[in-house]
C-alpha cells in the first residue's frame, strides 16, 4: 500500500486551521454576552490539538508531490475529517445536537449544501450562526481550489477540459494549490465584502450581512432565520441574486479579469453564456406561469421568480417564498432545475452547465452521424474538438450521477421515507442544493425529522456530489489500495 | 427533398394489413351476439381502403432499397399511422371514446405500453378486448423486427452492436425485414400458443387466455379486467412470470436455438445473464421487505414479489396487487425498476440491460484510467472491445432518455398534474411500462382522468420510447429533410 502519511499531514494542518477559525465565533459569543463562548474555546482547543498531533506524527514523511492515489485520498479525506471536527460546536453548544445531526449539519455546511436539521435558528447564539456561515464559506473556497487544481489533475468528471486554462499545470500539486488558493482568496474575500456591504446598504444588520454574504458567495444557502430570505425586503433579494450568480461563474475568469482588465474572456465563455441563457429562460417561464395563474403580478411576480430560480439553479437553496405552493408546474420545474447547476470552477454544484453542453454536442454529432453514416464528425466545445477521454469522463459522471440518484432514492425509501421525500432528498443532497420537496424537507420544512440512517446516507450523498462522485468512488476500489 | 413515396407505399400496405386483422374481432363480436360486429366491419373497410389507396398511389415509386432518411421516416411513420387507424374501433365502438382517448389507447397498444384510459373493461364487448390484445401483439412483433433490422442499420442507441449477429447484414433492408419477420413470426406464434395453452391449463377460459397470451408475449400488459391479474389464481401468475421473462429475452437466440439445437449461446449471453441476475436480486429484496414488514408470508409473499418485479422489469405492467400500498420502499423501487428494462431484440422496452452493461463497462474503464493515467484501457462487451461509436451511441440514448424524462415531467406538470403523477407518468410512458405511481395513474388507477394535452404528450412519449428516441428525434432536424 502507498504511504498515507503525506495525506494525513495535510489533513491535520487543515483541521488545525479549522480549529483556529473557531476563535471567530468565540469572539462573537463573547460580544453577545450569553456566556456561550467557552463552547468554541473548548472546540478550538480540541480541534487544533487533534489536527496538530496528526500533522506532527506525519511530518517526517512530507513530500512536495503527491501520487495520484494520495491526491484522491486527500480530496475525500479533507471532506470527511473537517465535518467531524466542524460538528463539535453543534454537539457541545446550545443546539445540543446528537453526533448524527451535528455531522449532517457540518457536512451540509462544508459541502455548501445548506440542508439543515436545526430549527429555531432565530434564537440561536450568534456564535453558532456565524459557525454555520463559516463552514459554508470555507467549503466554498475549498471546492474552488479542488475544482481548479485537484479534479482536472485527477481527470474526474471531464474536469480535465479545464486543465491548461489560466494556470500553469506543470508545477507540483501542493505548491500549485497554495499559489491558486492565494489568488482565488483575494477574489473570494473581495466578493464577500462587496456582498456584505450591499446587504448592509439594503438594510440588513452587520451580523446578518456577514453571515449571509458568506453563505451567498459559497452558494451555500444557510440562513440565520427559519424563514430564510422570507424575512428580508425586495432590495436584499436583488442583491442576493447578483452575488449568487457571480458565485456560480468560473472563478478563473475573475482572476484573469483582475490581471488583464479585459472582460473579453468572460463574455466569450460558453459556460457563462449557457448559464445566463438558462437562467433567463427559466425566469421568464416561471414569471409567466405565476402571472397567468393569478398568484402574483408585476414586479413581485418577477422578483420571486428571479430569486427562487437563481437560488435553485446556482444550488444556493435560499427560499424567499414556499414555491411548494406555487402549483405543480413550479414544483416539478424546481426539482429538475436543481439538477442543472452552475459553472465548473465556481462554488456551484450539481451536474453543471459545461457537462450538459458537452453531452448535447456529443448528441448533435450522433444525430449527424446516423443521418450520414460515412461522414466524420467530432464534437466541439468552444471551437476546439473534444477528446474522447473528456467525453467518456463526462459521461461516466452523468451515468454515475443518475444511477446513484436512483439507488440512493430506493435506499432512503427503505428507511421509511415516502416517494417524494426520498427522491427529492437524494437529488438535493447529491446536487448540493439544500431544500427538497414535499411537506417534510420542502422549502418550508427541514431535515430534523428524518431517521438517523437517512441522515447518514444524505451526508454521504453530499460528499459524493461535492467531489464529483468519481473522486470518492475511486477510493472504494480494491485496485486503489493495491497501488 | 428525398422521395417519400416508397415509405408511404410500405406504410399503406401495413395499414391495409391492420385493417385485415380487424376481421378477427369482428368474428368474435358475431360469436358473442351483442350486435357489435358492424363496428369492426366498418373500421376494417375504412382501414383497408385507406391503406390500399395510399399504397396504390405510391406503387410506381417502389424500390428494394431505402435510403437512410427513408428508413427513419418509415420506422416513425408506421408507429404514427397504425395508431390512427387502430383507434377507430374505440371511437366507433361501445367505448365511444374521444379521438384523443382512442389514439392514446391505440398508441399504448402498438407501443406495448399498456397504459389504459378505459375502465369497465369487464363489461366491454369481446371484440374490443381482443382488439386491444391484437394491437399489443402486432406491436410486439413489429418492434422485434425494428430492433433486429432497422435500428442496428440506423445505428440508433447503440443497437449497432447487434448488427452482424445471427443474421446476414448485407442484403437490402426490405427483403431482409421480410425474411427476419418470417423466422421470428414462427417463434412468436409458438410462444403465444404455448402461453395461451398454459393459461388454459391453469383454469383461464379460452378467450381470456388468448388475449392475455398476446399481451404477455408482447410484454404489453393490457388485461381484460380492471383488476388486471388480481382476478386470477397463483398458477396463472407463475405461468405469466415464465412467459414475460421469455418475451424479454433477445429473440435472435430463440431463432438460433431452433436451428442449431444448441442452448450454449443463450446460456453465455451477457444480456440474459444480466437480466436474470437483476431479477433475482430484486425478487429477493422485495420478498424480504414484504416478509419483515409483516404484510405477507411464505409462498404468497414470494409469488407477489416475483410477479410484480418481473412485470415491471420486463415492462409488461400487469399488476396482481396494488404495490402502491406495499410501503415507500416498494413504490420507489418499482419506479426505478421500470427504468431498467429487459434485453434488446425482445418486446421489452426502457433503457435495457445491455446499455447499463456498456455504461458500467465504460465507467469501470474510466475508474482504472483515473487511477493509472498512463494505462490504456478499452471497455469490453462479451469479451470484445466496444467501439467508441457504439459507446457514444449508447450514451446519447441515455442522456436523451434522462433529459426527455425531465422535460416531459415539467411539461406534464405545466398541464396541472401533480409531481408524482407527472414524473411517474413521463417515466412509464417513455419506458413503455404501463402503470404509473400515485392515486391517479398508479397500479389501481388509470389514465382516463388526465387532461387531453397530457394524453397527447404521453402518446408522443410512448412513441419516442418505443423507437429508442433518436429514431424519432432524427426526423425533427432540418438537416434530415434537406438530404
Ligand atoms: K446549496
Ligand atoms: K408494457
UniProtKB/TrEMBL annotation, chains A, B:
Record bears the keyword Cytoplasm: no
UniProt source species: Thalassococcus lentus
Location of the protein in the cell: Cell inner membrane; Cell membrane
InterPro entries: Cat_transpt (IPR003445), TrkH (IPR004772)
Keyword tags: Cell inner membrane, Cell membrane, Ion transport, Membrane, Potassium, Potassium transport, Transmembrane, Transmembrane helix, Transport
Membrane disposition: Multi-pass membrane protein
Main subcellular location of this protein, as a coarse class: membrane
Name of this chain's protein: Trk system potassium uptake protein
